[in-house]
Every structure is written in C-alpha cells, then in structure tokens.
Design a protein that fits this description.
α13 packs antiparallel against α14. The longest helix is centred in the first third of the chain and has 35 residues, at about 40-75. Residues about 20-35 and about 630-634 have low confidence and may be disordered. The protein is globular, with a radius of gyration of 26 Å. Strands 1-2-3 form a three-stranded mixed beta sheet. The protein has a two-stranded antiparallel ribbon with strand order 4-5. The chain contains 23 helices and five strands. It is mainly alpha-helical and about 625 residues long. It has three domains: about 40-250, Clc chloride channel; about 265-485, Clc chloride channel, CATH 1.10.3080; about 490-625, CBS-domain, CATH 3.10.580.10.
Length: about 625
Amino acid sequence: MTPRTNIERKLRRKGEETLALLRNLIPDNQPLDLRIVSRMLLHASLVGLVAGIFGVAFYYALELLQWFFLQKLAGYTVLHAAGEKPIGTADSSHTHFRPWLIVLLPALGGLAAGLLGRRTPEVCGGGGDAIISSFHHQGAMIRKRVIPIKALASLCTLATGGSGGREGPTMQIGGSLGALVGRFLQLPIRERRILLVAGIAAGISAVFRTPLGAALIAVEILYRDGFEADALIPSVFASVVAYSISSSITGESALFLCDRSFPFYPSHLPLYAALALLVSFAAIAFLGIFRISRTLFGKLPGPTWLRPGLGGLLLGLLCLPVVTWISSQTGKTGSGVGLIGGGYGLVQTAISGASWLGTGWYTVALLTGLAITKMIATSFTIGSGGSAGDFAPSLAIGGLLGGAFGHLAAMLLSDNTIDPGAFALVGMGVFYGSLAHIPLAAVILVCEMAGSYDLLVPLMLAQGVGFVLLRNRSLYETQIIDINRSPAHQASSHADIMSGFRVAQALNAREHVAFHAAVPLAQVSANAKKAGRQAVFPVHNDQNQLIGIIPWATVAATDPDLEIMNWLIAMDIMQSPVTILPQSPLGDAVSLMATHGLRELPVCNEQGHVTGLLTQEDILRFVAQTITPADDHA
C-alpha cells in the first residue's frame, strides 16, 4: 500500500466522520474561550468605534430635528435633564406657540416611521425585542438595511414628539453594527453573537454616557436569569471606546444634576423596600397597558403603516391639555412637561424640584398623574409600532413614582431627612431594572446617571425586592429564561467545519409550497399534505416577505374535518420565522437547524423574499461532494 493511498484513506475517513457529525447535529454548550481568541477584544474595540460615532451622530441629529420641529415650528420648549446637550436656546418665548402642531407633528412623524417600516418590520417598536431575538434565534444575522431605516424611523418618531427614548433604537442599531462587523470579517457565528452584544453596549454608552452600566445591560438583558458571560469583557471594551468618543464631543457630565449628597440612613431601608413594592405593581400595570394598546392597534383594519400615525395623533390629543395646563402654571407658553419625548427632563424635575410642582398632597397627586399619563403616552407611541425606545419612558415613569413616594413619606412621617430626589432615583432604577431583568446593571446605571454612589445600598435592596416580585414578567418577550435554554448555546460546534462555505453553494433550486398569511387553515392542510417531502412551509405577507414558518409536524396534527379549520388562517398556527441569507456561512445553517429542530431552512434575500429551501440532504450532499475525497480505486 503506497503512502498516497494511506493519506487518501485517512482523508476519506475524516470526511465520513464529518458527515456523521452533521447528520446527528449534536449540540454542544462549550463557551467561547476568550483566552485564546484575544482578537475579539480588537474586534469589540472596532465595534465600539463604529457604534460610538454612529451614536453621537444620531444624538445630535435627533436634537437638531427636535429643536426644529418642536421648538422652532410648534413653539414648544422641550424639557431636558441637566446633563443633556440641547441644540439652540431652551426658551421658546420668542416663538409663537402653535397647539395644533402638538397634535399634528407626532401623527406625521408616526406615519413617516410606519412607511419606512413597511418592508422592514423589525424596525417597528422599541428595538430591544428585535435585537434579543436576533441573538438567540437568527444567529446574529441582521439585514444591512435595518441600520439606516431604524435610524430614520426613530428620528421621525422622536423628533416630532413621540413618547419614547433614543436608547432603544441605539441599542438595536449598535447591536446591528456589531453583527455587521462580524459578518464583514466573516467571523464564526459565536463571535458574531458576541460582537452583537458588544454593539448593544456601545450603542447605549454612546448616548447615555454610562460605560459600566451599558456593558452590564448588554450582557444581562438577553436573559431573565443570568447573563452572557462570554460577552462581558468585549462589551466593556466596546462600551469604553464608545464612551470615549461620546464624552470627547458631548462632555463627561452625568445625565442628571444632583447638587447634593444622599446620606445613608438605615432607618429608611423599609421605606425603600415599600417603594420597590409600589413600583413593581405600577410596572405590572404599565406592562398591561402597553400590551393592551399593542393588541388593539394590531386589530385595527387597514395597512399596518397607518397605525403609528394614529398612535401619534392620540399622543398629541392626550398631551396637549397637559402642556396647556403646565404652561398656565409656569407662566411660559408652550412649556415642556416631559410627556413628549423620553421624559428625562421630567425626572430631573422630580429630583431637583420646581415651583410648579407645589407642595404636599398636590405634589404627590401631580407626579402620580404625570406617571400614569406617561404610561399611556408611551403605549400610544410604541404600542402602535412607532420606532422609539421603551428604555427612557420606563426610567421616567419610575422616577416620577419614586418622587411621589418620597414626598408622601416625608409628609406623613414629618421626617426632614427623607429626600424625595433619592426616592426618585431609586424608583427609576427599580422600575426598568425589574421589568427588563437587569438588577445589577440597573444599580450601576442609576449611580452613573446621578454621578454618585450614595444610593448604592438602597438600590441593592430595592432591586432585590423588585426582581423577586417581577420574576415572571418581562418588558422583553424574546428574553430567554437562562443561558442553558438559549438556542444560541445549543447549536452544534461542528457547524464550524462548514464556516468556509456559503449557503448558496449547497442550495438546490426546486419548487416549494408557501402560503399567504390569510390563507384558510383547511387549504393549508390540504395543500401541504400534497407537497411531498417538504418539511417547512413559509408564510408570507402581501409584499411576499417571509413573516413565519409552519413545520410539517404542525400540519400533520391538524384535522381537516374540524369546523375550526374553516375560520382559522395560516397566521394562527405559524411560528416565528427562522431564515438565512444566501451569502451566510453554511455552518450557520447547520446551527440554526440544530437549534430549532428543522430539516429545512428558508433562504431569503435582503428584501425578505424566500429564494429556496435549504435541506439537510442538500448539506450532506454538498459535504460528500466537497469534503470527502473521491475514491480513485487505488
């Protein structure tokens, strides 16, 4: 036997072993070892650089547009926090106040955002759910068009007065930039996921100026319990770089001005625990209002792109009477109240105080009423599909409730040591931290926003109470319970064998059966059962874009003789779409199949149109032809 024959037999045996591994799609939970992939830190720094520049540009573009539309045109003075850097003068006394624009502008901005999101539905809403889902389910493969369209849609929504924050959009944009850098560098799927998380941290850090809090949010927000340990150090690196860029341009000041210290009084700890209890119940109420709003908007007839416009119209009608009333209290026409926009200025007012807040029961009632109104305003904006973050409104609502609680406690207990501003800061952290399941990040976040760690102990206590009370509720529906249940950690490590090949190389063109979302279930069952060996059936919308899939197991479980089959439609039984791009690494397709238990995977172009179905047989045939050496009968 010649040496050449021995080598060929070894290669053939290696190829057969690879085929066996791919057939079994054995999951493997080995974490990424950052000790031997230090290049990730360089990549994370690159992500921080890109996301930092983009974040600062987005921040100033939003401030400029907000100044033009709200202050210059409508004569409305936007209420800012002390650490924000508004463009133009903060006084609109020389500008004529036009109340009708307070109603019209949010409607027009929402309509523009809806039109932008027609062909890119993932840009609608806050952005947090979309980026979390991409990490767990889409293998960090995000369409390139998401970045510019999300930015434009968010600018349209927020610059015209939408009740939302800039952090949610920059979270999605930063994560998308991280995934895009990984895709450009042709990194394996695990490293792309880590860069996605690093991008989230960089996006938040660039506009929020909280480097450590942003890094912790990025790794905590993916799960209800636990965090993404592999991404912690890259997230810190990306966050530091983004913060350095942002602070060099906008300054290093904390978001909120706290011109006093907050001494620690052990006797106040029961009050902070009671505050956490109150805020937790308010968070549950907000979650209910938000989801009811989203459901009602979702049931409206007509095209979906009209709904954000309607949400903006309702927002304007809700806020105009409040703006008019506050103006009468301050003596300044068009005085900002914080219901329009993120609401940080309103939190600053709850911390620092203002003459129009009054005293006693009046103050408690006013802050509570503004918090409830902010809940409804945010539900109108984001629940209708407007592109705005839920991050800032959640902090604002918690801060208002905390301030109201602080004033109430000081009044009832006649205790001069109770500072309502301290309770406003703690309430802010508990509200969002408990709903988003980021207890550690929220503690650090509030301390960085206030520029002081005086409230560290009260925050730790209150966060613990809120985390326990809201353990089974979440602002982000795509969060996974823990790392062991994440599809991102159940994919086969043997998929890396295929990282050098592309999906398009293995895809075989063939006819496939697909359904419109409104097709009756009886028709779905009948046609699917005639489709031969097809295992996954794509579901598309009016623009022929993939919006879901129906596995064969679901079709097989249907009974065509049941009466319910005549009035249910394909959308009622479809699952979330699992798809891949033709230019994606073939190893990613193997991972997605293993993760979701699929034998077929829809392949979509950048527009979301299905170009074919990649099957396990296609992959195995490609491996057999490409990796396994041909037998030359030596």
